[in-house]
Every structure is written in structure tokens, then in C-alpha cells.
């Protein structure tokens, strides 16, 4: 067996390509979650700007009516959590069902 630097370079290039593809896929899914959930609670998009915390909040909260009773301290800072709970009280979003 021989060590071939060309093969190592190829593997590095392929790994970088894979990371780029994964990044694009994650961004696509994050934008889809923001678009779909934005119909229900549009104000949240301006309050929670990062994709990962946004998805975690959606998963924990479910329906926006559950927002007040949820503890987001493991996801959001205290100020953002308070802003989110205030925004849910005056949200202009549409109602959704469990099937949505």
C-alpha cells in the first residue's frame, strides 16, 4: 500500500463539496419552516432571526397559543423570550390545525 497525496486532496475536495451541499439543504429547509410557520406567527421571524433557534422554538411551541406557557430559556435569552411572548398576544397570523 502506498500513500497517495492526490487521493487525499480528492477526498478533501469532496468533503468540502458535501459540506456546501448540506449547508444549502439546511438553508432551504430553514426558509421553508420560516415561510410556512410565518403564516401562523409572522411576528416571530423578526424576533428570532437565527435559523436553528427559530426551528427549536417552533418545535417546542407548536401552536402560538402555547407560547405563554412555554419555557424558552434553553433556546432564547430572557429579553427575546419576553418579546416573543408579548408579540404572540397581538399576532396577526392565521389559525392552523394539527394537520397543518
TrEMBL record:
Domain (NOSIC): residue spans on this chain: 11-63
Highest taxon of source: Eukaryota
Recorded GO MF terms: snoRNA binding
A Pfam family annotated for this UniProt entry: Nop
Signal peptide stretch: none
Gene Ontology cellular component terms for the protein in this record: box C/D methylation guide snoRNP complex; small-subunit processome
InterPro entries: Nop56/Nop58 (IPR045056), Nop_dom (IPR002687), Nop_dom_sf (IPR036070), NOSIC (IPR012976)
UniProt xrefs under Gene3D superfamilies: 1.10.287.4070
Family to which this protein belongs: Belongs to the NOP5/NOP56 family.
Protein name: NOSIC domain-containing protein
